[in-house]
């Protein structure tokens, strides 16, 4: 590169506020200012600009496409000018003094910020089509379309940003962001403009402290900030077209260039003679042009220093997130697609390299004259979308990757790779902003805040009396935690030279507290940890299951048979580990679980299948307070494991299908349930509204749901008159049937538990109560059948056969009484016969009979 | 006995109270306790009260729109009784978290006021709830007063869905009106009787009485 040529200002307008815009193809540069000719410069030529004379004075904003441009003036008119004829075309709208304009990426809509309270969005083809955005209480100072054209950010003079979604017919306010921008006068030189990052997932604004703060669009969390160090208010800023750089300038007459990735200052230019009011990057070349308050235009070639120009040629760079959701590798982050693209940005890069890509055929800037009709224009100063995506289509960075993509790719790709289930830590959430929950259960919750170099971990309890909340500074960056009544377990990943570490901290002891740390062998990272009342369990990337006692004595180490490991859970002496097993028909791995009693060294279930429906993912695994394993899948079904202590007898039984909850029956609510625990025969969860996937701060309260086994569908339709009566009976019967199945399951769970433990009287009492429930529901069913008439006698007798009798014949006696009450004499006789057969032991289950 | 749902912050064994045993409290499991005990625990910061669903701003505003726009002169209906119950509204748990969200129970005004005073921090938006409660109360009191217009000797006014406190509030006013009407009616009655007696004494027994009897026969 040649040495930087002398920067020469061009007197574009009379001294005063001057603004500029490039056409998206970068061929023309248009400036507006106080005096009336609008000047159209041609890029790369020193020739005199073309003047457009028939226009208003004191223009304050300009946006351009390849074929036309739109300018707004202090007198409140917004005119459209043709670039082909270089003349005034039509009046688009009229309002009070125009402050800013923004053009949607497809060039069809222009948003007008004026001193009116309403922001108008006018169609550039048909000025009668106008959308009105009315939610801001004061005048708007800036407007900015995001790169998909779906969102419009309005920086209001009240110091808030109003973000509208324009995807629907009627614009809708999606978010009000408070505390990001400064409250400014409408005509002040300082800027509060929203700068959408070209990757579409974040935007940045100048703040009151003269920094540039980035905020993500998905969860409205503050991300990294550029500490600009300007001594005056920031008057303009812009992302480079690929988002790799940020240029800022302020009233202190300095022009700074920043690296997006590291937020480091690359270069400061101090040869600025007046405050820069607008700056734009050339869409493709290393040129930054700006206009000052003196009416001068500067075209700054080779703006990015030579050693950094490589970055400028790179593909789209991602916005500076603190924890980029796409780069997330730890724990239960967004699931990565194994076969498909890892993330959308990379996918786009790959496409550029394919031999017959459209870009190759047409060339990167082929759209300049060939198809320069309604091409992408973006005048928010944040960079140009056409470099981002050669076809003017919006990038799919804002979409979640869907597994469908991966499947399609799997067929086309040369080598088949099975889809494995990512490992996760039950009860934790991924990073949202700089916070995440490490563990959330019925004892309390552990959360951590990222502070750049270290984390701060806070442990809070529900029971304020029994435990005291604590928090500490964490230099090891713990990323997994478990919490129970005895203590807290943390684990950190290996970083640099230091290996992965386990840290256990008991809450209270009768001696001094004996917390301990253990380091794992080098190269082994922690996949999941679990903490029971007597053991600490760690599953690692080397497929080892490591069991420690509560005082750090290594107790057992064994290799997990199914790999890679997914997660683990523990309750007393029992350890449940889950791993990826053989590949199923749909290309995903079947999950296999193993339950063993580590104290007695007995395997209860060995490599049995975790029954999930196709496409469903495991969301959480935990033991209930009674010690029964439960899983919750991504379809919202809670399942428990019946007879899990007897080898190969285990069975997954659904306890609750949250999609069938009555609160969702109206169909208007959209909510999901984030599993926390099962205790006291209830499902404890956090209700998440809308499309939220994980709970966030402040901590939402726990909700509890009774179990409801999906036995039968809801009664069909709404009946009127006589039908209503029949339906009520039907739903009554369904309800009782569900009670019967549920109490049978609970009875089976409880009797299993009692058979292996020394049962307390209350447990035995609960078991008897459950048996009573089973019999009661059966007797109710019997009564319903008797009521239905003589012809239901067979079914009634069958129900009687299901009654659980303790041998005394008391229950059958009650059934007899029921039959008697409805005057079913035949049935009564049959029941008596049955009772007699049972009494002499004839009615036993015998397959040989 | 009004029951409310609390989220305890401390353990507490079950208590054997006159009204029956209370459940053992283990945080963070919800438990249903008598109102007085819940308020006591709340004051001692040992528990948080979770307000019943009908005290949520969205349900209150839905009820308010129903009252103002759809119900006409009637009140919004009381919560539906669960099937197969024998007890009536004041003795049903209508203020726990499982209560219906779309109906005001019998003690809505008292409970709302008490909970707002004792546990405003457990509400999401106590001010909105307060405002909506006020709106609802005024709207319903207006209906109650409007109903007085039809209250004459044989008049009737449907008060389904009205709360206990509202009855008490209206009692003095309605009672006064009815009593006044009765007094007016009583003097008129007295006059009529006097007149009849005079007529009887004067010997015109036939006409008036006969006509009256005939009318009754026709009916």
UniProtKB/TrEMBL annotation, chain A:
- Cite the residue spans of the region called Disordered: 709-733
Residue ranges of every copy of the WDHD1 first WD40 domain listed in the record:
10-298
Spell out the residue ranges that the record assigns to WD repeats: 227-268
Can you name one GO molecular function term for this protein?
Answer: chromatin binding
Gene Ontology CC: one annotated term: nuclear replication fork
What range(s) does the WDHD1/CFT4 second beta-propeller domain occupy?
A: 422-711
**Protein's name in the database:** Putative chromosome segregation protein
Automatic annotation (TrEMBL), chain B:
Q: Which domain of life is it from?
A: Eukaryota
Per the record, where are the segments of Acidic residues compositional bias? 210-219
User: What residues does the GINS subunit domain cover?
Assistant: 95-184
What protein family does this chain belong to? Belongs to the GINS2/PSF2 family.
Keywords, A to Z, come to:
Chromosome partition, DNA replication, Nucleus
Task: Mention one GO biological process in which this protein takes part, according to its record.
Answer: double-strand break repair via break-induced replication
- Localized where? Nucleus
Per the record, its GO cellular-component terms are: GINS complex
DNA replication complex GINS protein PSF2 N-terminal domain location is: 1-49
Q: What does this protein do?
A: The GINS complex plays an essential role in the initiation of DNA replication. Has a role in chromosome segregation.
Source organism of the structure: Lepidopterella palustris CBS 459.81
This protein is called DNA replication complex GINS protein PSF2
Q: Where is this region: Disordered?
A: 185-219
Biased composition, class Basic and acidic residues, residue ranges: 189-202
What binding partners and quaternary form does the record give?
Component of the GINS complex.
């Amino acid at each position: 590169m040649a040495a930087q040529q002398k920067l020469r200002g061009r007197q574009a307008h009379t001294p005063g506020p001057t603004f500029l815009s490039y056409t998206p193809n970068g061929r023309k540069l248009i400036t507006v200012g106080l005096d009336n000719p609008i000047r159209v410069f041609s890029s790369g030529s020193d020739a005199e600009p073309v003047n457009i004379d028939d226009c208003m004075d004191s223009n304050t904003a300009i946006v351009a496409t390849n074929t036309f441009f739109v300018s707004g003036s202090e007198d409140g008119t917004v005119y459209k000018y043709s670039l082909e004829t270089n003349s005034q075309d039509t009046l688009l709208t009229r309002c009070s003094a125009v402050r800013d304009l923004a053009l949607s990426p497809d060039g069809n809509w222009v948003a007008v910020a004026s001193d009116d309270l309403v922001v108008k969005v006018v169609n550039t083809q048909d000025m009668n089509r106008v959308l009105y955005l009315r939610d801001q209480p004061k005048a708007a100072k800036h407007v900015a379309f995001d790169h998909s054209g779906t969102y419009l950010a309005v920086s209001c003079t009240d110091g808030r940003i109003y973000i509208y979604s324009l995807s629907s017919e009627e614009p809708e306010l999606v978010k009000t962001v408070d505390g990001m921008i400064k409250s400014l006068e409408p005509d002040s030189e300082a800027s509060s403009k929203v700068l959408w990052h070209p990757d579409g997932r974040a935007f940045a604004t100048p703040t009151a402290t003269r920094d540039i703060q980035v905020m993500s669009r998905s969860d409205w969390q503050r991300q990294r900030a550029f500490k600009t160090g300007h001594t005056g208010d920031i008057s303009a800023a812009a992302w480079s077209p690929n988002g790799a750089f940020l240029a800022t300038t302020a009233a202190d007459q300095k022009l700074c260039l920043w690296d997006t990735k590291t937020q480091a200052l690359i270069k400061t230019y101090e040869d600025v003679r007046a405050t820069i009011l607008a700056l734009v990057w050339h869409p493709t070349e290393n040129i930054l042009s700006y206009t000052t308050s003196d009416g001068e235009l500067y075209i700054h070639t080779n703006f990015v220093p030579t050693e950094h120009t490589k970055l400028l040629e790179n593909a789209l760079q991602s916005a500076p997130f603190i924890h980029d959701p796409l780069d997330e590798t730890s724990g239960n982050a967004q699931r990565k697609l194994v076969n498909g693209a890892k993330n959308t940005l990379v996918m786009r890069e790959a496409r550029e390299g394919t031999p017959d890509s459209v870009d190759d055929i047409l060339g990167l800037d082929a759209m300049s004259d060939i198809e320069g009709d309604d091409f992408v224009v973006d005048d928010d100063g944040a960079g140009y979308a056409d470099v981002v995506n050669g076809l003017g289509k919006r990038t799919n960075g804002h979409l979640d990757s869907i597994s469908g993509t991966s499947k399609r790719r799997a067929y086309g790709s040369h080598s088949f790779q099975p889809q494995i289930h990512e490992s996760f830590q039950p009860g934790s959430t991924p990073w949202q902003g700089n916070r995440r929950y490490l563990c959330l259960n019925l004892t309390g919750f552990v959360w951590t805040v990222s502070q750049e170099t270290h984390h701060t971990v806070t442990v809070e309890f529900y029971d304020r009396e029994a435990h005291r909340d604590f928090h500490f500074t964490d230099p090891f960056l713990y990323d997994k935690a478990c919490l129970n009544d005895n203590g807290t377990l943390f684990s950190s990943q290996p970083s640099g030279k230091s290996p992965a570490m386990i840290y256990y901290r008991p809450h209270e002891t009768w001696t001094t507290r004996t917390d301990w740390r253990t380091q794992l062998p080098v190269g082994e990272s922690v996949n999941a940890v679990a903490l029971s009342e007597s053991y600490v369990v760690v599953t690692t990337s080397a497929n080892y299951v490591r069991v420690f006692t509560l005082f750090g004595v290594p107790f057992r180490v064994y290799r997990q048979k199914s790999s890679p490991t997914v997660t683990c859970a523990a309750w007393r002496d029992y350890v449940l580990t889950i791993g990826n097993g053989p590949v199923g028909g749909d290309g995903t791995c079947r999950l296999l679980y193993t339950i063993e009693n580590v104290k007695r060294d007995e395997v209860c279930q060995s490599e049995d299948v975790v029954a999930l429906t196709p496409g469903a993912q495991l969301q959480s695994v935990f033991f209930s307070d009674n010690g029964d394993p439960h899983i919750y899948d991504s379809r919202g079904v809670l399942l428990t494991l019946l007879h899990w202590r007897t080898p190969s007898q285990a069975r997954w039984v659904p306890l609750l299908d949250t999609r069938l909850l009555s609160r969702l029956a109206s169909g208007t609510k959209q909510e999901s349930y984030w599993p926390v625990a099962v205790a006291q025969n209830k499902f404890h969860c956090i209700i998440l509204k809308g499309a939220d996937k994980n709970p966030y701060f402040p901590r939402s309260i726990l909700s509890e749901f009774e179990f409801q086994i999906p036995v039968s569908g809801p009664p069909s339709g709404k009946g009127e008159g006589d039908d209503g009566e029949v339906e009520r009976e039907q739903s009554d019967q369904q309800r009782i049937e569900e009670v019967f199945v549920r109490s049978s399951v609970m009875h089976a769970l409880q009797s299993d538990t009692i058979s292996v433990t020394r049962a307390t009287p209350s447990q035995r009492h609960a078991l008897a109560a459950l048996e009573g429930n089973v019999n009661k529901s059966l007797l109710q069913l019997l009564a319903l059948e008797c009521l239905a008439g003589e012809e239901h006698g067979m079914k009634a007798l069958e129900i009687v056969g299901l009654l659980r009798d303790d041998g005394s014949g008391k229950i059958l006696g009650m059934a007899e009484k029921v039959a008697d009450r409805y005057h079913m004499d035949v049935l009564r006789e049959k029941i008596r016969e049955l009772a007699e057969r049972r009494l002499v032991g004839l009615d036993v289950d015998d397959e040989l009979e | 006995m009004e029951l409310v749902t609390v989220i305890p912050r401390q353990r507490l064994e079950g208590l054997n109270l006159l009204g029956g045993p209370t459940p053992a409290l283990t945080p963070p499991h919800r438990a249903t306790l008598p109102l007085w005990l819940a308020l006591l625990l709340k004051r001692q910061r040992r528990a948080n009260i979770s307000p019943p669903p009908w005290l949520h701003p969205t349900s209150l505003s839905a009820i308010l729109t129903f009252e103002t726009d759809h119900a006409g002169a009637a009140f919004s209906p009381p919560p539906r009784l669960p099937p197969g119950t024998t007890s009536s509204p004041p003795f049903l748990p209508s203020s726990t978290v499982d209560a219906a969200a779309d109906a005001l129970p019998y003690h809505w005004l008292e409970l709302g006021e008490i909970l707002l005073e004792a546990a405003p921090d457990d509400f999401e938006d106590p001010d909105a709830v307060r405002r909506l409660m006020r709106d609802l109360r005024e709207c319903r009191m207006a209906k109650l007063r409007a109903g007085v217009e039809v209250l004459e000797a044989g008049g009737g006014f449907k008060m389904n869905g009205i709360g206990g406190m509202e009855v008490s509030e209206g009692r003095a006013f309605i009672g006064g009106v009815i009593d006044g009407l009765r007094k007016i009616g009583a003097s008129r009655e007295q006059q009529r009787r006097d007149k009849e007696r005079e007529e009887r004494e004067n010997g015109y027994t036939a006409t008036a009485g006969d006509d009256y009897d005939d009318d009754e026969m026709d009916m």
